Amino acid sequence: MGELRPIGLFAFSCLIACLTQALPTWLILFSIVGIGWKFWRGLKMPAVLLYSLMILFWCLLIFDSPKLIHRDTLTGALVLGSLFSVLSPPHKQRTMRFHVGLFSLLISILIVPKETFPLWIYFGICVLICMSLVLHHVPNQSMFSLINLGRTLVKLALPLSLLLVPVYYFFPEIRNPVQQQGMSGISGDLEPGQMASLALSDRLAFRVRFLKEVPAESLLYWRAEVLEKSRGMSWTQGNLSNSEIVPISEPKEPIVYELMLDPQLGMMLPLLEHTTSLSQARDEAGLFIQVDKKVVKSNNRFLLAGATPASRFGALTPPKLDIPDIKLSPRVQNLVEQLKTKTPKEQIQFLMNMYKTFKYTLHPGRLASSDPLDEFLFETKRGFCEHFAASFATLLRLGGTPSRIVIGYQGASQLGSSTYYQVTNANAHAWTEVWIDGNWIRVDPSSVVITPESRPKETEGLTSLITAWISFSIQHMMELMQEWSDDIGTFWISVGICAAGLFLIQVWRLRRRKEEAPEWERKTQRFLTLLEQKAKARERGASETIYNYLKLVGEDYGIEDFLELAKLYNLSKFAEEEAAVPKLLACLSRCRGRLPDLKKQDKSRYDIAT
How far apart are CA 199 and CA 319, in angstroms? Predict the structure, then answer.
């Protein structure tokens, strides 16, 4: 009951792989070493060493964490607790505590949204943990009894289900919003004022690798969707324009980047502004562009793109954008009348100066009145990027200047000093585009009130860089395999995979057969290895039996213990005399003590010969 089976250790390894974004590098390495120690060698760590290491790593975890009560700190503590169960000696409650740790880590994957995975990965890990739990706690004879099996599963499931209670109350990401609090991200519409506050989510949206020039921070505007229909502070996409297929071309622009997207984005494809060429590995994953919006849609998760830095989009014809059909308050109407007397550039400058007196905050409260535009402009004067973009674009529309809202992401976190970057939902942003003199010009109204403290960013360290490098490497390998499949055909690839699988199965069978050998036989084999390699005794022939080899070595050196060991081995191996096994083990201990004598005799023979 106290021993851990390989399936449980494999599930723990999968959980560590999924949590690399939330764990420091040293803890990941320690986990790999610990699992390797237990899985491959089955060695037992001394209690003093185990407790010393655990205390050391607990202190290091607290010292390395941004703060004591933090999701990453708690996740690291769960990993250390589970690893302690793996390395500790067997005892009655060991397996139950180990599986509680596994289920806790599975929940941690959901509440530490730095990395997201397809649903089948979560399901597969959950099945692995459940299978391990059943194999540890259900007797073999109960596996075929549905009643006994069901009763045991219910008893195991009830206490584990209590783990979900604190998760539900303390982590709003996986439950319905409370008190009108939302999580940062992008969607297909915009309605600021409906949420009292906004929590920044660090869930990964996409990764980027720049192959040539790295653009400045001010150019990192990732365009995902354009909203054109306004009802005051509420904006939607409006009429969907016709899409055209994007031609595939090799990027040759000054900025060339690889983009790896998260599945949460769906068909949205956040690209740098003025991306003019796209390339992808799979031709069947279509690329479609809405020309008038300069928005690209795709269900591909990996692309190569090229962009040219610029500040405007050319438009051949004036846009046909409707004026918002809303009832204006006297204060808003007076503001609109002032705007109508100005040129588009003067309108922009006027509104930007007005917004300088506003405050950027993620906790602006709800706009509860029947006229949210008036309330924001003249009462609260508090909000985040959606409030500023929606009101700014609406006022320009009312003033006679075509405008629209762009939603996407702004900025990126550099991984170390590399060319790898990652963008999370905390980078979600909304800005406006204004049509002036035949061009759509980007204007970010919230930029005049945003300070570095307004949108804090977590530093990304070595672990994130390693994860990004592995992710891009795997993606490139998948592309290469796709090319191979096109060249040599799926059939031969399947044959190669089956052959490799059969080879691995055979290696596993041989290893298992070796591990199933009795302890006395494994010790005898290790002694023979020492005899040949370290003691430099005569080499054993390919067809020579262990009995003959030990007998000849004993005769060569005149050591009777070797002759006795040969007889005891035959009795234990072929006669299957159980009484001979303890004698064989004792004789092995004596023979190991005689190994230095072999070296001395070899040296003395060499001296005589010279």
Answer: 35
